[in-house]
Prior knowledge:
The chain is α+β, with helices and mostly antiparallel strands. The protein is 41% helix and 26% strand. It contains 27 helices and 30 strands. The strands form seven sheets. The protein has a six-stranded antiparallel β-sheet with strand order 2-1-6-5-4-3, with helices on both faces. The protein has a five-stranded antiparallel β-sheet with strand order 8-7-11-10-9, sandwiched between helices. A hairpin with a 4-residue loop joins strand 1 and strand 2. Helix 17 (497-507) crosses helix 19 (534-550) and helix 19 (534-550) packs antiparallel against helix 21. It starts with 18 loop residues before the first helix and ends with a helix. Residues 1-17, 596-605 and 647-665 have low confidence and may be disordered.
Amino acid sequence: MSLSNASKDPVDDDDGKSAKQIDDRRDRLGKNLLNIGDAVIVTDALGNVILLNPAAESLTGWTDYDARNRPIEAVFQIIHEVTRQPVIQPVKEVIEHGIVRNPAQFTLLIAKNGSERSIDDSASPIRDEKGDLDAVVLIFRDTTERRQVEKQREEDRRHGEVIIAVVQNALLALDGNLRVQSANRSFYETFHTSPEETINQSIFDLGDGQWNIDGLRALLEDILTRNTSFGEFQVERAFPTIGPRIMHIDARNLNGKDGREMMILLAIEDITVQSQMADSLAASEVRFRRLFEAAQDGILILDANTGAITDANPFLLSLLGYSCAELLGKHLWDIGLFGNIDTSRASFRELQERGYVRYEDLPLETKDGRHVEVEFVSNVYHVNDQMIIQCNIRDITARKRVEEEMRQANEAKEVAGRAKDRFLATLSHELRTPLTPVLATIAYVEMMPNLAVAELRQQILSIRQNIELEAKLIDDLLDVTRIGSGKLELHREVLDIHTSLRAALEICQSEIEAKKLEVSLALRAEDHHLWADPARMQQIFWNLIKNATKFTPAEGRLSFRSADVGAGRMAIEVADTGIGIEPEALPRIFDAFEQGDRSVTRQHGGLGLGLAIAKMLVELHGGTLTVTSGGRSAGSVFRVELETIAALKDQDQPPDPAAGAERGLHKVLLVDDNAETLSTIARLLRSSDFDVRTAVSVKSAFAALDSERFDLLVSDIGLPDGSGLDIMRHGRNHLGLKGIALSGYGTDQDARTSKEAGFAHHLIKPSDLGRLVDLIRRMAS
């Protein structure tokens, strides 16, 4: 019996081995695999999985139990890292060719959850006593981190080569053995050599051994052992290809990080011309003065013995605001260089000893006390048999400002990127969450066609609630966009703010009761009528109540208070005994997509838009929304302040919504190109005592209007042969027809376009069909 038959009934095979013996053999193999660090999958001779060790379970996302008897392709899905095309399955290669599959590279494993990781894999056959293929063992390991390091190394190398290639000075990159790994174009052009003569050569073997200098060797070895650097090393000699030259060498250690190899960067500058120029300047004072006066960098000339300023060029005088007479005799510390006298004197001594100093970033103080960031280079040289010091000073204020702006911009970009990633992850989760129970409920109803009416109603209610939640998420996103772009329109009327609060509280009643929260109302404001948008006011309080309910533990308390605050304003407070808000989170609690403590709020879901929308809407009404909290577990108090108007007197009662239905049937023309939507809404309206005709296009709607008289049009906007707007215009202009738009287009501009065409209302899909029935009744009355 083969290993692949281990799951069959325990009967003896031709060799007298029982299935139990094979099972024992498989168990022993499985126990051995448990201790193997690499991932292992064992298949039968047909390529069906018979065993996964824990490491394989972790990498593939499949359990050993779920993977059993599945084809290897289902469990071990692999593609090429670059082409992303499927690659040859190693198990199939062993089965078809009977050979050992060597480790493969550049392979991506796609786990059960869709995640990807780089792997190395190999496969070997297991043969039975007769030499026939009994099973295949597939071994693989996660190489993601290694591949990332390899890619980073390659990226670093390419990046370095690009930088090196564009630098004007000759550059060499040496490895830890002081062999040349790369050189830029300037090196090859300067020394008239080629990559073949340079790459992988020891620096001391280049050319005719021109760099084989004891001093240079010691400095380079010191960099390797002590992580130092050096500059100003000078080589003066006759080079075989370019003749006599003076070369200036700087060396820096590029420390290896994250496993990267240490590198040394050599910058080689041909300073022959500079030296010749210095000689020319020393020989010609006129030429020196011309250059000195015309220089676009600041130049100071110092006495080499005392360090006192003996001359300054016009550029520097203009930069500092001094006259030349005012600078003469001063020292560098008098104009703010090096910070203080002691530091300045120490740098001056270094300059005297070395003949050269360079500083990338120093402060310089102007006559009026301003500080200027400068780059400072100083040399000691002879002029007319006298030693002088020349200081070249470059104003780098603009460069520093640009660097700081770039740093801040990069930080802002990183913060925005992290916020975007958090938001997209949350959005994906929140949009998918309501769909899961909807799909599950639909599947359940499909599997149980004979459900009792009561249970069927319950399932439909579940679908409805989750679809409404999905629609609410979309509405929140649209509201943030509309408000932020100034496109949200308020439909104001006189309203009782206490009524809006109670209405919002009623909507949240089921959630409040589910958590057994105690609710107390102390609505004591005498002037509580506003000029406001009723729907948006109710939305404000709905968001505040939802927030308080969400973050208040079971059997907690919600309190609602209103009071007059004077100057024609009133306030409503929504208080809870919930988890509270940490002080550091208070400043951003009303920011869109922000939540207080993400470790706490993540369990409650949401996009972090409710409070942001509430604050925006309050401010659109000319009010304020603030929050106070004592911190964690101390609860929160949200306070809304709004302007009021005088209470209304003798207000007429609104018409009865059902009055239209009591007068008998009213004819409604319903237009939608989706057959399921059309039949569902038609059935609902007929059950509400309306006489309904249906149409699926503009053409069929026009035909219905020409043949019958209707009281009301309910129409989709986007239709296959035109627009519902065309139907409304025709019905309004020729028949005096009223209309309600029912559309998936939901911007403020869409609503305005609908009203311009003649629609009295614009409902957004998926819509509350109960509200649709109520609107039809009101319009009919």
